[in-house]
Amino acid sequence: MSQSRTSPLAPWMIALIVVAVLLVLATAVGLLVYFLIYDQKLFFYNASFKIKNKQYQPSYDKQTSAEFRELSRSIEILIKQAFHATPLENRLINERVVRLSPGNDGVLADVLLIFRFIATDNKETLWTNIYQSLLKKLKSSTWPLSIDISSYKLSGKCYRCHL
Question: Which residues form a coiled coil (predicted)?
Answer without folding.
Answer: none
